[in-house]
Protein backbone atom coordinates (compact mmCIF):
# COMPACT_ATOMS: atom_id res chain seq x y z
CA UNK A 1 0.00 0.00 0.00
CA UNK A 2 1.28 3.45 -0.90
CA UNK A 3 1.55 6.50 1.29
CA UNK A 4 -0.50 9.37 -0.13
CA UNK A 5 1.19 12.76 0.06
CA UNK A 6 -1.01 15.82 -0.52
CA UNK A 7 0.77 18.73 -2.19
CA UNK A 8 -0.58 22.18 -3.19
CA UNK A 9 -1.56 21.99 -6.83
CA UNK A 10 -0.34 25.33 -8.09
CA UNK A 11 1.77 28.44 -7.77
CA UNK A 12 4.75 29.22 -5.62
CA UNK A 13 3.61 26.94 -2.83
CA UNK A 14 3.74 23.96 -5.22
CA UNK A 15 7.12 24.94 -6.67
CA UNK A 16 8.63 25.55 -3.23
CA UNK A 17 7.28 22.21 -2.01
CA UNK A 18 8.84 20.38 -5.00
CA UNK A 19 12.11 22.19 -4.32
CA UNK A 20 12.03 21.38 -0.59
CA UNK A 21 11.51 17.66 -1.19
CA UNK A 22 13.97 17.73 -4.14
CA UNK A 23 16.88 18.94 -2.01
CA UNK A 24 16.05 16.07 0.36
CA UNK A 25 16.32 13.46 -2.37
CA UNK A 26 12.64 13.07 -3.11
CA UNK A 27 11.84 14.30 -6.61
CA UNK A 28 8.23 15.38 -7.13
CA UNK A 29 6.99 16.16 -10.62
CA UNK A 30 3.74 16.91 -12.32
CA UNK A 31 2.71 14.22 -14.75
CA UNK A 32 1.61 15.14 -18.26
CA UNK A 33 0.07 18.52 -18.95
CA UNK A 34 -0.41 21.50 -16.64
CA UNK A 35 -4.08 20.66 -16.32
CA UNK A 36 -3.57 17.14 -15.11
CA UNK A 37 -3.63 16.83 -11.32
CA UNK A 38 -1.46 13.79 -10.93
CA UNK A 39 2.21 13.55 -10.20
CA UNK A 40 5.31 11.43 -10.27
CA UNK A 41 7.50 10.62 -7.30
CA UNK A 42 11.11 9.51 -7.76
CA UNK A 43 13.86 8.72 -5.32
CA UNK A 44 11.63 6.91 -2.83
CA UNK A 45 9.32 3.92 -3.11
CA UNK A 46 5.76 3.65 -1.93
CA UNK A 47 4.76 7.32 -2.16
CA UNK A 48 1.92 8.61 -4.29
CA UNK A 49 1.59 12.37 -4.80
CA UNK A 50 -1.89 13.88 -4.78
CA UNK A 51 -2.20 17.46 -6.02
CA UNK A 52 -4.85 19.40 -4.13
CA UNK A 53 -5.83 22.97 -3.44
CA UNK A 54 -3.90 24.10 -0.33
CA UNK A 55 -7.21 25.00 1.31
CA UNK A 56 -8.55 21.45 0.93
CA UNK A 57 -5.51 19.73 2.39
CA UNK A 58 -6.57 20.20 6.07
CA UNK A 59 -9.91 18.50 5.36
CA UNK A 60 -8.25 15.62 3.47
CA UNK A 61 -5.81 15.12 6.35
CA UNK A 62 -8.64 15.19 8.86
CA UNK A 63 -10.60 12.59 6.88
CA UNK A 64 -7.51 10.43 6.51
CA UNK A 65 -7.72 10.37 2.71
CA UNK A 66 -4.07 11.44 2.58
CA UNK A 67 -1.34 10.30 4.99
CA UNK A 68 0.78 13.42 4.73
CA UNK A 69 0.01 16.89 3.44
CA UNK A 70 1.71 20.23 2.87
CA UNK A 71 -0.26 23.37 3.72
CA UNK A 72 -0.04 26.57 5.72
CA UNK A 73 -0.11 26.12 9.51
CA UNK A 74 -2.79 28.86 9.55
CA UNK A 75 -5.07 26.78 7.28
CA UNK A 76 -4.92 23.76 9.57
CA UNK A 77 -5.67 25.83 12.67
CA UNK A 78 -8.51 27.68 10.99
CA UNK A 79 -10.22 24.73 9.35
CA UNK A 80 -9.80 21.97 11.95
CA UNK A 81 -11.30 22.10 15.43
CA UNK A 82 -8.80 20.58 17.88
CA UNK A 83 -6.29 20.52 15.03
CA UNK A 84 -3.54 18.96 17.14
CA UNK A 85 -5.73 15.94 17.85
CA UNK A 86 -6.36 15.40 14.14
CA UNK A 87 -2.94 16.03 12.65
CA UNK A 88 0.66 16.22 13.80
CA UNK A 89 3.25 18.71 12.60
CA UNK A 90 6.17 16.77 11.14
CA UNK A 91 8.29 19.62 9.81
CA UNK A 92 7.99 23.35 9.37
CA UNK A 93 9.29 23.92 5.84
CA UNK A 94 10.68 27.44 6.08
CA UNK A 95 8.74 29.03 3.25
CA UNK A 96 5.25 30.43 2.65
CA UNK A 97 5.73 32.54 5.76
CA UNK A 98 2.91 34.96 6.57
CA UNK A 99 1.54 36.48 9.73
CA UNK A 100 -2.12 36.67 10.61
CA UNK A 101 -2.38 40.06 12.29
CA UNK A 102 -4.98 42.50 13.61
CA UNK A 103 -4.71 45.89 11.94
CA UNK A 104 -6.53 49.20 12.44
CA UNK A 105 -6.47 52.54 10.57
CA UNK A 106 -3.16 54.41 10.96
CA UNK A 107 -5.19 57.47 11.92
CA UNK A 108 -6.23 55.72 15.13
CA UNK A 109 -3.26 57.28 16.91
CA UNK A 110 -4.72 56.27 20.26
CA UNK A 111 -4.65 52.55 19.43
CA UNK A 112 -1.41 50.59 19.87
CA UNK A 113 -2.43 47.41 21.65
CA UNK A 114 -5.30 44.94 22.06
CA UNK A 115 -6.08 46.74 25.29
CA UNK A 116 -6.68 49.94 23.29
CA UNK A 117 -8.72 48.05 20.70
CA UNK A 118 -10.98 46.71 23.47
CA UNK A 119 -11.46 50.18 24.95
CA UNK A 120 -12.22 51.63 21.53
CA UNK A 121 -14.67 48.80 20.81
CA UNK A 122 -16.63 49.77 23.92
CA UNK A 123 -16.60 53.44 22.94
CA UNK A 124 -17.51 52.63 19.34
CA UNK A 125 -20.45 50.42 20.29
CA UNK A 126 -21.84 53.05 22.63
CA UNK A 127 -21.55 55.75 19.96
CA UNK A 128 -22.62 53.87 16.85
CA UNK A 129 -25.13 51.37 18.20
CA UNK A 130 -23.33 48.39 16.71
CA UNK A 131 -20.21 46.45 17.49
CA UNK A 132 -16.83 47.35 16.05
CA UNK A 133 -16.50 45.26 12.88
CA UNK A 134 -13.36 43.28 12.09
CA UNK A 135 -13.19 41.88 8.55
CA UNK A 136 -11.49 38.50 8.19
CA UNK A 137 -11.45 35.14 6.50
CA UNK A 138 -9.99 33.48 9.63
CA UNK A 139 -13.01 33.37 11.92
CA UNK A 140 -11.98 30.59 14.27
CA UNK A 141 -8.41 31.80 14.78
CA UNK A 142 -9.39 35.42 15.31
CA UNK A 143 -12.36 34.67 17.58
CA UNK A 144 -10.25 32.37 19.77
CA UNK A 145 -7.43 34.91 19.90
CA UNK A 146 -9.70 37.78 20.91
CA UNK A 147 -11.55 35.64 23.44
CA UNK A 148 -8.25 34.54 24.95
CA UNK A 149 -7.20 38.18 25.25
CA UNK A 150 -10.55 39.33 26.59
CA UNK A 151 -11.49 41.73 23.81
CA UNK A 152 -15.24 42.41 23.74
CA UNK A 153 -17.82 44.37 21.75
CA UNK A 154 -16.53 43.42 18.32
CA UNK A 155 -18.17 41.49 15.47
CA UNK A 156 -16.43 39.50 12.76
CA UNK A 157 -17.40 40.33 9.19
CA UNK A 158 -16.66 37.72 6.57
CA UNK A 159 -14.23 38.81 3.89
CA UNK A 160 -12.84 36.23 1.47
CA UNK A 161 -10.60 38.61 -0.47
CA UNK A 162 -9.27 42.20 -0.65
CA UNK A 163 -9.81 42.38 3.11
CA UNK A 164 -7.57 45.46 3.45
CA UNK A 165 -10.07 47.42 1.38
CA UNK A 166 -13.03 46.79 3.68
CA UNK A 167 -12.10 49.65 6.03
CA UNK A 168 -11.90 52.16 3.19
CA UNK A 169 -15.27 50.90 1.94
CA UNK A 170 -16.86 51.43 5.37
CA UNK A 171 -17.83 47.80 5.69
CA UNK A 172 -15.45 47.23 8.63
CA UNK A 173 -13.50 49.29 11.18
CA UNK A 174 -10.52 46.92 11.44
CA UNK A 175 -9.14 43.81 9.74
CA UNK A 176 -7.53 40.51 10.68
CA UNK A 177 -5.54 39.43 7.67
CA UNK A 178 -2.47 37.58 6.43
CA UNK A 179 0.57 39.70 5.63
CA UNK A 180 4.18 38.87 4.89
CA UNK A 181 5.74 42.32 4.68
CA UNK A 182 2.92 44.57 5.84
CA UNK A 183 3.15 46.51 2.59
CA UNK A 184 -0.45 46.02 1.48
CA UNK A 185 -1.65 47.04 4.92
CA UNK A 186 0.45 50.22 4.84
CA UNK A 187 -0.71 51.03 1.32
CA UNK A 188 -4.25 50.89 2.67
CA UNK A 189 -3.39 53.18 5.61
CA UNK A 190 -3.61 50.38 8.16
CA UNK A 191 -1.20 49.50 10.98
CA UNK A 192 -0.65 46.31 12.96
CA UNK A 193 -1.28 46.29 16.73
CA UNK A 194 1.92 45.73 18.70
CA UNK A 195 0.46 42.61 20.32
CA UNK A 196 -1.82 41.80 17.40
CA UNK A 197 -0.03 38.76 16.00
CA UNK A 198 -2.66 36.01 15.92
CA UNK A 199 -0.50 33.36 14.28
CA UNK A 200 2.86 33.23 12.47
CA UNK A 201 2.16 30.84 9.63
CA UNK A 202 4.45 28.89 7.33
CA UNK A 203 4.17 25.92 4.97
CA UNK A 204 4.28 22.79 7.11
CA UNK A 205 4.34 19.06 6.49
CA UNK A 206 1.49 17.49 8.47
CA UNK A 207 0.72 13.88 9.29
CA UNK A 208 -2.87 12.69 9.41
CA UNK A 209 -3.82 10.79 12.54
CA UNK A 210 -6.89 9.29 10.88
CA UNK A 211 -5.17 7.82 7.79
CA UNK A 212 -4.62 4.09 7.43
CA UNK A 213 -1.23 3.57 9.06
CA UNK A 214 -0.04 0.00 8.46
CA UNK A 215 3.45 -1.52 8.43
CA UNK A 216 4.08 -0.44 4.85
CA UNK A 217 2.98 3.20 5.21
CA UNK A 218 4.68 3.51 8.60
CA UNK A 219 7.89 2.20 7.05
CA UNK A 220 7.63 4.74 4.25
CA UNK A 221 7.00 7.53 6.77
CA UNK A 222 10.15 6.54 8.69
CA UNK A 223 12.10 6.69 5.43
CA UNK A 224 10.73 10.17 4.66
CA UNK A 225 11.46 11.35 8.19
CA UNK A 226 15.03 10.11 7.88
CA UNK A 227 15.49 12.02 4.62
CA UNK A 228 14.08 15.27 5.92
CA UNK A 229 15.76 14.94 9.29
CA UNK A 230 12.50 15.13 11.25
CA UNK B 1 -25.82 8.77 17.86
CA UNK B 2 -28.96 9.19 19.95
CA UNK B 3 -30.02 5.98 21.61
CA UNK B 4 -33.78 5.79 21.89
CA UNK B 5 -33.89 4.45 25.43
CA UNK B 6 -31.48 6.98 26.84
CA UNK B 7 -33.32 9.79 25.13
CA UNK B 8 -36.71 8.54 26.25
CA UNK B 9 -35.57 8.20 29.85
CA UNK B 10 -34.23 11.76 29.79
CA UNK B 11 -37.43 13.07 28.27
CA UNK B 12 -39.55 11.24 30.86
CA UNK B 13 -37.42 12.71 33.61
CA UNK B 14 -37.75 16.18 32.10
CA UNK B 15 -41.54 15.83 32.04
CA UNK B 16 -41.51 14.72 35.67
CA UNK B 17 -39.39 17.70 36.74
CA UNK B 18 -41.55 20.08 34.73
CA UNK B 19 -44.58 18.67 36.58
CA UNK B 20 -42.90 19.21 39.94
CA UNK B 21 -42.12 22.85 39.16
CA UNK B 22 -45.63 23.27 37.83
CA UNK B 23 -47.21 21.95 41.01
CA UNK B 24 -44.93 24.37 42.85
CA UNK B 25 -46.82 27.19 41.14
CA UNK B 26 -44.85 27.78 37.92
CA UNK B 27 -46.57 28.27 34.59
CA UNK B 28 -45.29 25.98 31.81
CA UNK B 29 -44.12 27.85 28.70
CA UNK B 30 -42.78 26.95 25.26
CA UNK B 31 -40.29 28.77 23.05
CA UNK B 32 -39.18 28.30 19.44
CA UNK B 33 -36.25 26.05 18.63
CA UNK B 34 -35.06 28.70 16.19
CA UNK B 35 -34.22 32.07 17.69
CA UNK B 36 -33.27 35.29 15.87
CA UNK B 37 -29.47 35.41 15.83
CA UNK B 38 -29.33 39.18 16.11
CA UNK B 39 -30.68 39.35 19.67
CA UNK B 40 -28.28 36.68 20.88
CA UNK B 41 -25.30 38.19 19.05
CA UNK B 42 -26.12 41.58 20.46
CA UNK B 43 -26.23 40.16 23.95
CA UNK B 44 -23.35 37.70 23.96
CA UNK B 45 -21.13 38.99 21.16
CA UNK B 46 -19.04 37.00 18.74
CA UNK B 47 -18.42 34.27 21.34
CA UNK B 48 -21.94 32.94 20.80
CA UNK B 49 -21.04 32.09 17.18
CA UNK B 50 -18.50 29.65 18.51
CA UNK B 51 -21.14 28.08 20.75
CA UNK B 52 -24.47 28.18 18.90
CA UNK B 53 -25.53 26.66 15.59
CA UNK B 54 -26.35 29.33 13.06
CA UNK B 55 -28.65 28.86 10.11
CA UNK B 56 -30.61 31.27 7.98
CA UNK B 57 -34.11 31.93 6.75
CA UNK B 58 -34.70 33.79 3.48
CA UNK B 59 -37.05 36.27 5.17
CA UNK B 60 -35.94 36.40 8.79
CA UNK B 61 -32.20 36.32 8.20
CA UNK B 62 -29.78 34.54 10.52
CA UNK B 63 -31.36 32.24 13.09
CA UNK B 64 -29.78 30.21 15.88
CA UNK B 65 -30.77 26.84 17.22
CA UNK B 66 -31.84 27.71 20.78
CA UNK B 67 -28.65 27.79 22.91
CA UNK B 68 -30.70 28.44 26.05
CA UNK B 69 -34.24 29.27 27.12
CA UNK B 70 -33.50 32.32 29.18
CA UNK B 71 -33.52 34.93 26.43
CA UNK B 72 -36.82 33.92 24.78
CA UNK B 73 -38.48 33.44 28.18
CA UNK B 74 -37.36 36.90 29.33
CA UNK B 75 -38.63 38.43 26.07
CA UNK B 76 -41.96 36.67 26.42
CA UNK B 77 -42.34 37.85 29.99
CA UNK B 78 -41.38 41.42 29.17
CA UNK B 79 -43.96 41.50 26.39
CA UNK B 80 -46.65 41.30 29.08
CA UNK B 81 -46.27 38.92 31.99
CA UNK B 82 -47.73 39.11 35.48
CA UNK B 83 -45.69 40.48 38.38
CA UNK B 84 -44.40 38.43 40.03
CA UNK B 85 -44.32 35.51 37.59
CA UNK B 86 -42.97 31.95 37.78
CA UNK B 87 -42.30 29.98 34.60
CA UNK B 88 -41.09 26.47 33.91
CA UNK B 89 -40.04 24.84 30.64
CA UNK B 90 -38.43 21.70 29.28
CA UNK B 91 -36.77 21.06 25.94
CA UNK B 92 -33.61 20.74 23.91
CA UNK B 93 -30.81 23.25 23.75
CA UNK B 94 -28.01 23.08 21.20
CA UNK B 95 -24.35 23.92 21.70
CA UNK B 96 -21.44 23.60 19.31
CA UNK B 97 -18.48 21.83 20.89
CA UNK B 98 -15.29 23.06 19.29
CA UNK B 99 -12.96 21.73 21.93
CA UNK B 100 -14.32 18.52 23.40
CA UNK B 101 -16.00 15.90 21.17
CA UNK B 102 -17.24 14.06 24.28
CA UNK B 103 -19.60 16.89 25.19
CA UNK B 104 -23.12 16.66 23.76
CA UNK B 105 -24.25 19.10 21.09
CA UNK B 106 -27.89 18.75 22.06
CA UNK B 107 -29.35 18.05 25.47
CA UNK B 108 -32.43 18.68 27.55
CA UNK B 109 -32.91 21.47 30.02
CA UNK B 110 -35.70 21.85 32.56
CA UNK B 111 -35.86 25.34 33.94
CA UNK B 112 -37.52 27.48 36.53
CA UNK B 113 -37.49 31.29 36.24
CA UNK B 114 -38.84 33.88 38.67
CA UNK B 115 -39.54 37.43 37.55
CA UNK B 116 -40.47 40.52 39.50
CA UNK B 117 -41.40 40.62 43.15
CA UNK B 118 -40.06 42.91 45.81
CA UNK B 119 -37.86 40.60 47.86
CA UNK B 120 -34.84 39.44 45.83
CA UNK B 121 -33.36 37.46 48.73
CA UNK B 122 -36.59 35.47 49.05
CA UNK B 123 -36.72 34.88 45.27
CA UNK B 124 -33.07 33.69 45.21
CA UNK B 125 -33.77 31.30 48.06
CA UNK B 126 -37.01 30.07 46.50
CA UNK B 127 -35.28 29.04 43.24
CA UNK B 128 -32.35 27.42 45.04
CA UNK B 129 -34.65 25.54 47.41
CA UNK B 130 -36.92 24.40 44.55
CA UNK B 131 -33.89 22.98 42.73
CA UNK B 132 -32.53 21.36 45.88
CA UNK B 133 -35.93 19.81 46.60
CA UNK B 134 -36.48 18.17 43.20
CA UNK B 135 -32.86 16.93 43.19
CA UNK B 136 -33.00 15.42 46.68
CA UNK B 137 -31.92 12.90 47.86
CA UNK B 138 -29.09 12.56 45.33
CA UNK B 139 -25.49 12.80 46.57
CA UNK B 140 -24.99 16.31 45.25
CA UNK B 141 -22.64 19.06 46.29
CA UNK B 142 -23.97 22.59 46.04
CA UNK B 143 -21.72 25.55 45.34
CA UNK B 144 -22.84 29.15 45.58
CA UNK B 145 -21.42 32.55 44.84
CA UNK B 146 -22.47 36.14 44.35
CA UNK B 147 -21.26 38.27 41.46
CA UNK B 148 -22.89 41.22 43.24
CA UNK B 149 -20.11 41.18 45.85
CA UNK B 150 -17.43 41.75 43.21
CA UNK B 151 -19.57 44.38 41.48
CA UNK B 152 -20.00 46.25 44.76
CA UNK B 153 -16.28 45.98 45.52
CA UNK B 154 -15.42 47.52 42.14
CA UNK B 155 -17.98 50.26 42.63
CA UNK B 156 -16.46 50.95 46.02
CA UNK B 157 -12.93 51.49 44.70
CA UNK B 158 -11.47 54.91 45.26
CA UNK B 159 -10.95 55.75 41.57
CA UNK B 160 -12.67 57.33 38.55
CA UNK B 161 -16.04 56.28 37.19
CA UNK B 162 -14.38 55.57 33.82
CA UNK B 163 -12.04 53.03 35.42
CA UNK B 164 -14.88 51.43 37.38
CA UNK B 165 -16.98 51.13 34.22
CA UNK B 166 -14.05 49.48 32.40
CA UNK B 167 -13.62 46.97 35.23
CA UNK B 168 -17.36 46.25 35.47
CA UNK B 169 -17.51 45.62 31.73
CA UNK B 170 -14.98 42.81 32.17
CA UNK B 171 -16.28 41.20 35.37
CA UNK B 172 -17.05 38.09 33.32
CA UNK B 173 -13.63 37.98 31.61
CA UNK B 174 -11.27 37.22 34.50
CA UNK B 175 -8.05 37.62 32.49
CA UNK B 176 -8.89 41.03 31.05
CA UNK B 177 -10.27 42.10 34.45
CA UNK B 178 -6.89 41.24 36.00
CA UNK B 179 -4.98 43.15 33.31
CA UNK B 180 -7.12 46.24 33.84
CA UNK B 181 -6.69 46.02 37.58
CA UNK B 182 -2.90 45.74 37.18
CA UNK B 183 -2.87 48.74 34.87
CA UNK B 184 -5.11 50.89 37.07
CA UNK B 185 -3.00 49.83 40.04
CA UNK B 186 0.16 51.07 38.33
CA UNK B 187 1.58 47.55 38.24
CA UNK B 188 2.05 47.45 34.44
CA UNK B 189 3.99 49.99 32.39
CA UNK B 190 2.06 52.11 29.90
CA UNK B 191 2.57 51.27 26.21
CA UNK B 192 5.74 52.87 24.75
CA UNK B 193 3.91 55.26 22.41
CA UNK B 194 1.55 56.53 25.10
CA UNK B 195 3.73 59.30 26.58
CA UNK B 196 4.51 60.64 23.10
CA UNK B 197 0.82 60.59 22.15
CA UNK B 198 -0.20 62.51 25.25
CA UNK B 199 2.56 65.11 24.96
CA UNK B 200 1.85 65.90 21.30
CA UNK B 201 -0.24 69.03 20.83
CA UNK B 202 -2.11 67.86 17.76
CA UNK B 203 -1.62 64.08 17.58
CA UNK B 204 -3.93 63.73 14.59
CA UNK B 205 -1.92 66.15 12.41
CA UNK B 206 0.26 63.58 10.58
CA UNK B 207 -1.93 60.61 11.16
CA UNK B 208 -2.87 60.07 7.52
CA UNK B 209 -6.36 59.77 6.09
CA UNK B 210 -9.06 58.77 8.54
CA UNK B 211 -10.77 55.67 7.19
CA UNK B 212 -13.95 54.01 8.40
CA UNK B 213 -16.76 55.08 10.64
CA UNK B 214 -14.76 56.08 13.71
CA UNK B 215 -14.65 59.87 13.71
CA UNK B 216 -11.93 62.37 14.57
CA UNK B 217 -14.10 63.57 17.46
CA UNK B 218 -14.18 60.05 18.87
CA UNK B 219 -10.40 59.75 18.64
CA UNK B 220 -9.95 63.16 20.29
CA UNK B 221 -12.35 62.15 23.05
CA UNK B 222 -10.44 58.95 23.74
CA UNK B 223 -7.12 60.83 23.85
CA UNK B 224 -8.68 63.22 26.35
CA UNK B 225 -9.75 60.22 28.41
CA UNK B 226 -6.24 58.78 28.26
CA UNK B 227 -4.88 62.15 29.43
CA UNK B 228 -7.24 62.17 32.38
CA UNK B 229 -6.39 58.57 33.15
CA UNK B 230 -2.64 59.32 33.07
CA UNK B 231 -3.25 61.99 35.72
CA UNK B 232 -5.34 59.67 37.88
CA UNK B 233 -3.41 58.19 40.79
CA UNK B 234 -3.17 54.39 40.86
CA UNK B 235 -5.69 52.36 42.85
CA UNK B 236 -4.09 51.82 46.26
CA UNK B 237 -2.32 48.59 47.18
CA UNK B 238 -4.75 48.18 50.07
CA UNK B 239 -7.76 48.22 47.77
CA UNK B 240 -6.09 45.98 45.19
CA UNK B 241 -5.37 43.50 47.96
CA UNK B 242 -9.02 43.67 49.02
CA UNK B 243 -10.18 42.75 45.51
CA UNK B 244 -7.71 39.85 45.51
CA UNK B 245 -8.96 38.75 48.91
CA UNK B 246 -12.57 38.84 47.72
CA UNK B 247 -11.74 36.89 44.54
CA UNK B 248 -10.03 34.16 46.54
CA UNK B 249 -12.84 33.76 49.12
CA UNK B 250 -13.67 30.08 49.22
CA UNK B 251 -15.31 28.97 52.42
CA UNK B 252 -18.64 28.06 53.96
CA UNK B 253 -21.23 30.77 53.44
CA UNK B 254 -21.36 31.89 57.12
CA UNK B 255 -17.55 32.17 57.24
CA UNK B 256 -17.54 34.18 54.03
CA UNK B 257 -20.14 36.49 55.53
CA UNK B 258 -17.90 37.14 58.53
CA UNK B 259 -14.86 37.76 56.31
CA UNK B 260 -16.83 40.18 54.12
CA UNK B 261 -18.11 42.07 57.16
CA UNK B 262 -14.47 42.63 58.14
CA UNK B 263 -13.55 43.78 54.65
CA UNK B 264 -16.39 46.26 54.44
CA UNK B 265 -14.66 48.19 57.23
CA UNK B 266 -12.08 49.13 54.57
CA UNK B 267 -14.56 49.29 51.71
CA UNK B 268 -17.81 50.73 53.09
CA UNK B 269 -19.64 50.45 49.74
CA UNK B 270 -19.40 46.69 50.12
CA UNK B 271 -21.88 46.86 53.00
CA UNK B 272 -25.18 46.74 51.03
CA UNK B 273 -24.00 43.72 49.01
CA UNK B 274 -22.96 41.97 52.22
CA UNK B 275 -26.38 42.77 53.72
CA UNK B 276 -27.98 41.17 50.67
CA UNK B 277 -25.88 38.05 51.17
CA UNK B 278 -26.93 37.92 54.83
CA UNK B 279 -30.60 38.33 53.90
CA UNK B 280 -30.27 35.55 51.33
CA UNK B 281 -28.74 33.18 53.86
CA UNK B 282 -31.63 33.93 56.24
CA UNK B 283 -34.10 33.29 53.43
CA UNK B 284 -32.36 29.99 52.63
CA UNK B 285 -32.64 28.95 56.27
CA UNK B 286 -36.34 29.80 56.14
CA UNK B 287 -36.61 27.37 53.20
CA UNK B 288 -34.98 24.66 55.28
CA UNK B 289 -31.54 24.81 53.61
CA UNK B 290 -28.60 23.98 55.88
CA UNK B 291 -26.38 27.00 55.21
CA UNK B 292 -23.71 26.19 57.79
CA UNK B 293 -21.84 23.91 55.41
CA UNK B 294 -23.02 25.53 52.16
CA UNK B 295 -19.96 26.23 49.99
CA UNK B 296 -19.40 29.79 48.78
CA UNK B 297 -16.84 30.91 46.18
CA UNK B 298 -16.66 34.58 45.29
CA UNK B 299 -15.34 33.77 41.79
CA UNK B 300 -18.11 31.25 41.06
CA UNK B 301 -20.04 32.00 37.88
CA UNK B 302 -17.50 34.32 36.26
CA UNK B 303 -17.63 32.43 32.97
CA UNK B 304 -17.70 33.97 29.53
CA UNK B 305 -21.50 34.11 29.24
CA UNK B 306 -22.31 37.61 30.46
CA UNK B 307 -25.27 36.55 32.35
CA UNK B 308 -25.40 36.42 36.10
CA UNK B 309 -24.87 39.54 38.18
CA UNK B 310 -25.95 38.46 41.65
CA UNK B 311 -26.56 35.13 43.37
CA UNK B 312 -25.13 32.13 41.46
CA UNK B 313 -25.30 28.43 42.21
CA UNK B 314 -24.51 24.99 40.88
CA UNK B 315 -25.18 21.40 41.93
CA UNK B 316 -22.68 18.68 41.02
CA UNK B 317 -22.41 14.97 41.71
CA UNK B 318 -19.93 14.32 44.49
CA UNK B 319 -16.96 12.35 43.23
CA UNK B 320 -17.92 12.69 39.57
CA UNK B 321 -15.63 15.39 38.14
CA UNK B 322 -16.23 13.84 34.72
CA UNK B 323 -19.84 15.09 34.74
CA UNK B 324 -20.84 18.72 34.20
CA UNK B 325 -22.99 20.32 36.91
CA UNK B 326 -26.45 18.77 37.00
CA UNK B 327 -28.05 22.13 37.76
CA UNK B 328 -26.92 25.74 37.52
CA UNK B 329 -28.57 29.11 37.92
CA UNK B 330 -28.52 32.57 39.31
CA UNK B 331 -29.77 36.13 39.23
CA UNK B 332 -29.58 38.04 35.94
CA UNK B 333 -31.22 41.45 36.42
CA UNK B 334 -28.64 43.09 34.11
CA UNK B 335 -29.55 40.82 31.21
CA UNK B 336 -33.19 41.90 31.45
CA UNK B 337 -32.05 45.55 31.32
CA UNK B 338 -30.20 44.90 28.06
CA UNK B 339 -33.13 43.00 26.54
CA UNK B 340 -35.60 45.60 27.79
CA UNK B 341 -33.48 48.49 26.46
CA UNK B 342 -32.95 49.89 29.91
CA UNK B 343 -36.19 48.69 31.46
CA UNK B 344 -35.10 45.84 33.70
CA UNK B 345 -36.91 43.45 35.99
CA UNK B 346 -35.60 41.37 38.87
CA UNK B 347 -34.97 37.88 37.49
CA UNK B 348 -33.57 34.69 38.95
CA UNK B 349 -33.68 31.16 37.60
CA UNK B 350 -31.99 27.85 37.14
CA UNK B 351 -31.86 24.81 34.86
CA UNK B 352 -31.48 21.08 35.40
CA UNK B 353 -29.92 18.74 32.84
CA UNK B 354 -31.86 15.46 32.94
CA UNK B 355 -29.21 13.51 30.97
CA UNK B 356 -26.56 14.44 33.55
CA UNK B 357 -28.98 13.57 36.34
CA UNK B 358 -29.49 10.09 34.91
CA UNK B 359 -25.78 9.59 34.24
CA UNK B 360 -24.99 10.50 37.85
CA UNK B 361 -27.72 8.28 39.27
CA UNK B 362 -26.68 5.19 37.33
CA UNK B 363 -23.05 5.32 38.42
Automatic annotation (TrEMBL), chain A:
**Keywords assigned by UniProt, alphabetized:** Amino-acid biosynthesis, Glycosyltransferase, Histidine biosynthesis, Transferase
Q: Which InterPro entries match?
A: ATP_PRibTrfase_cat (IPR013820), ATP_PRibTrfase_CS (IPR018198), ATP_PRibTrfase_HisG (IPR001348)
Name the GO cellular-component terms.
cytoplasm
Question: Mind listing the GO biological process terms from this record?
Answer: L-histidine biosynthetic process
Select a single GO molecular function from the record's annotations and give it. ATP phosphoribosyltransferase activity
Entry-linked PROSITE patterns: ATP_P_PHORIBOSYLTR (PS01316)
Q: What is this protein called?
A: ATP phosphoribosyltransferase
Q: Which organism's genome codes for this protein?
A: Roseisalinus antarcticus
- Which lineage ranks, top first, belong to the organism behind this chain? Bacteria, Pseudomonadati, Pseudomonadota, Alphaproteobacteria, Rhodobacterales
Automatic annotation (TrEMBL), chain B:
| Origin superkingdom | Bacteria
- Aminoacyl-transfer RNA synthetases class-II family profile domain spans which residues? 1-354
Q: Which Pfam families match?
A: tRNA-synt_His
Spell out the molecular function terms from Gene Ontology. glycosyltransferase activity
Q: Which residues bind L-histidine?
A: 68-70, 95, 109, 113, 302, 307-308
Residue ranges annotated as coiled coil are: none
UniProt keyword rRNA-binding, yes or no: no
Q: Which UniProt keywords apply?
A: Glycosyltransferase, Transferase
GO cellular component: a single term:
cytoplasm
Q: Which PROSITE patterns match?
A: AA_TRNA_LIGASE_II
Name the NCBIfam families on file: PRK12295.1-5
* Family of the protein in this entry: Belongs to the class-II aminoacyl-tRNA synthetase family.
Q: How does it assemble?
A: Homodimer.
What is the protein name given in its UniProt record?
Histidine--tRNA ligase
Amino acid sequence: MTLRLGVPSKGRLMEKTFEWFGTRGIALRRAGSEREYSGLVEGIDGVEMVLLSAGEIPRELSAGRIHLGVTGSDMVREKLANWDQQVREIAPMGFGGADLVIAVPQAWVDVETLDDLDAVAAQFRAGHGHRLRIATKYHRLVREFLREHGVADYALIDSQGATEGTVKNDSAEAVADITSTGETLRANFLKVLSDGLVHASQATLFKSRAADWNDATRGTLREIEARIGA
Amino acid sequence: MIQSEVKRAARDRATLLLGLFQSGGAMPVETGLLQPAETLLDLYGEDIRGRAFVTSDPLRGEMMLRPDFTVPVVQMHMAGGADPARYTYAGEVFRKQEADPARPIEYLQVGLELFGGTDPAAADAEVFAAMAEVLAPLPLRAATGDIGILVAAVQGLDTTEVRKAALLRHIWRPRRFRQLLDRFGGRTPTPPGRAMLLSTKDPLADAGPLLGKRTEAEIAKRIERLRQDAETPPISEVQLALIDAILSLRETAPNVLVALRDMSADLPLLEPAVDRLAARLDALVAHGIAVDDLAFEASFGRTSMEYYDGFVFGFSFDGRPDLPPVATGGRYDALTRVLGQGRGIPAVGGVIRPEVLIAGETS
